[in-house]
Write a structure and sequence with these properties.
Elements: E1 6-15, E2 18-28, E3 33-37, H1 44-51, E4 59-64, E5 67-68, H2 74-79, E6 82-84, H3 97-106, H4 113-118, H5 120-141, H6 143-147, H7 158-170, E7 176-180, H8 188-205, E8 209-213, H9 217-223, E9 226-231, E10 234-239, H10 241-246, H11 248-260
Parallel strand pairs: 3-8, 3-9, 6-7, 7-8
Antiparallel strand pairs: 1-2, 1-4, 4-5, 9-10
Helix pairs in contact: 3-5, 3-7, 5-7, 7-8
Bound molecules: adenosine-5'-diphosphate and magnesium ion.
Adenosine-5'-diphosphate binds near residues 15 and 43.
Length: about 260
């Protein structure tokens, strides 16, 4: 069998007495779009936080391409080719679109203080290369957005802000993109448009792997090839959209949440 691109074995994350991830085994295969589902508080975002090195897990292993990345810093995980978007927007609204996207790439800059002082020319070239890259990437989303490269992000519509956040995660050409509720705060039409964009960018940049956390079931149905459902930090179901939605345990987990709400 193929080695998974990302593999969590017995992954456990405790916050005091609360077990947010409970001995989770989860594999993500190269090139797939995996949906990560589960009621609120089931551990989905925590999974992203642990994988990207924001939290050190209480137990278990995380392998990227068979290599242990447990205990790696967010920067190391990023350099290994894993990027993400956040559930809540993290754009700086006063900064330009360019700056917001390029931040995603500054972590790649090898030029430090020395270069700043003594290698201005090199820095200038690096900057110009980045402008070209960011412009090209925005252009794959749409031309009007690309034309707003040096405008403040605060002037953009909701969907364009989301696109900028996606560009920030894509600028480093990740192998694995983690999307945390990309449709939050958007209308159905905007969500569909954003999904079109994601699929289109993916067809242009190459079939990078995606894990998407999403509550909109029509989004999950449309773009995922496989789904994993969490409840209380445990995997309760795994399979195609049709399989997981027919699963009684999944139905109970979601209904239970509605009854409790
Ligand atoms: N930093 C933290 N400190 C304490 N508890 C946390 C922290 N992060 C998440 N949790 C708790 O872990 C559980 C899972 O949260 P989360 O992963 O955000 O759920 P989901 O994304 O599935 O809605 C929740 O009960 C949440 O309150
Ligand atoms: Mg969450």
């Amino acid at each position: 069998m193929k080695t998974p691109l990302l593999q969590a074995n017995g992954l456990t994350m405790r916050f005091g007495g609360l077990t947010a991830l409970d001995a989770l085994d989860l594999s993500v295969f190269d090139g797939e779009i995996l949906g990560l589902l589960g009621p609120n508080g089931s551990g989905k975002t925590t999974f992203f936080n642990v994988v990207t090195g924001l939290y050190a897990p209480s137990a278990g292993d995380i392998l990227l391409d068979g290599r242990d990345i447990r205990g790696n810093t967010p920067q190391q995980v990023y350099r290994a080719g894993v990027t993400r978007t956040f559930q809540r927007s993290r754009l700086s609204l006063t900064m330009t679109v360019f700056d917001n996207v390029a931040i995603g790439n500054y972590q790649h800059f090898e030029l430090g203080l020395f270069a700043n002082l003594f290698q201005r020319k090199q820095l200038r070239q690096e900057y110009e290369r980045t402008v070209e890259m960011v412009h090209a990437l925005l252009n794959t989303f749409n031309k009007e957005l690309a034309a707003k490269l040096f405008q403040p992000a605060g002037g953009l519509s909701m969907i364009d802000r989301r696109r900028v956040e996606l560009c920030r995660a894509l600028i480093s050409k990740p192998r694995l993109l983690l999307l945390d509720e990309p449709s939050a705060g958007m209308t159905h039409d905007e969500t569909n448009e954003l999904m079109d964009d994601i699929l289109q960018v993916r067809s242009q940049l190459g079939p990078f792997t995606i894990v998407i956390i999403e509550h909109e079931m029509n989004v999950i149905q449309r773009i995922t090839e496989r789904c994993v459902v969490l409840n209380y930090g445990k995997k309760i179901a795994e399979g195609s959209y049709a399989e997981i939605t027919a699963d009684p345990q999944v139905q109970v987990a979601y209904l239970g949440q509605e009854a409790a709400a």
